[in-house]
User: Fold this.
Amino acid sequence: DAGITQSPRHKVTETGTPVTLRCHQTENHRYMYWYRQDPGHGLRLIHYSYGVKDTDKGEVSDGYSVSRSKTEDFLLTLESATSSQTSVYFCAISESGVGLAGRTDTQYFGPGTRLTVL
Amino acid sequence: QQQVKQSPQSLIVQKGGISIINCAYENTAFDYFPWYQQFPGKGPALLIAIRPDVSEKKEGRFTISFNKSAKQFSLHIMDSQPGDSATYFCAASNPGGSQGNLIFGKGTKLSVKP
Assistant:
């Protein structure tokens, strides 16, 4: 998994509680991403980071916030978890932005965190 | 216009057969098309990728065919093996959009029967 760890790997929580998921990389890659994966929806981008303290929203950012205080760590926070946020969350990294003209940098995915919100 | 439509949702192929998964897109600004393979309980992993300046790319038993005029691309798995059983995602990236904006198809679950 290209030097990417996610913690926790599994979590069960209750509606309304805050939840923080952590992604840690040892590759010193600039870009980090959070996706959620749901049956019938594929992978959808939540937020991404293009450097320390530099983040931007993805397709499904409502209800999520992120922080990146160090190159190696990217945190995803659900301020008040809802049942609709039950999902598998994947972190990914890439050396540069995917699809940059003339570049073919790969996004490498972590092992995922299965979150259940009751 | 930002969607990538993938078909079929599921596919059953006999060992030794050819598996074909298709994707279509609308946004002509997309210029990077990767395919990812995902085994149960694992994260997706890049399998093969193509840019629209070529019509075909082959890596071992895996081939991407790209039809720019039709805005379609497909993954062909030759001599399919039970170990190829996984979920496959196509994706597309728009270099003019947000850095890191990979749009994924909804996935195809491939089962290769021995």
